[in-house]
Amino acid sequence: xxxxxxxxxxxxxxxxxxxVVTVDQKPNLIRHLHDLSGVxxxxxxxxxxxxxxxx
Length: 55
Hints:
Layout: no helix or strand
């Protein structure tokens, strides 16, 4: 590597940020239900902000 003028470059290790919860968590109300036919579930993928940008 020295003869070719090549140098190695180390990359910093990625560290996952820690989350801090400041409010109490809500209990899981459907955990103990035996009949889940009346339970609806959804996922919000995109939320449009007031300035018409997507997050």
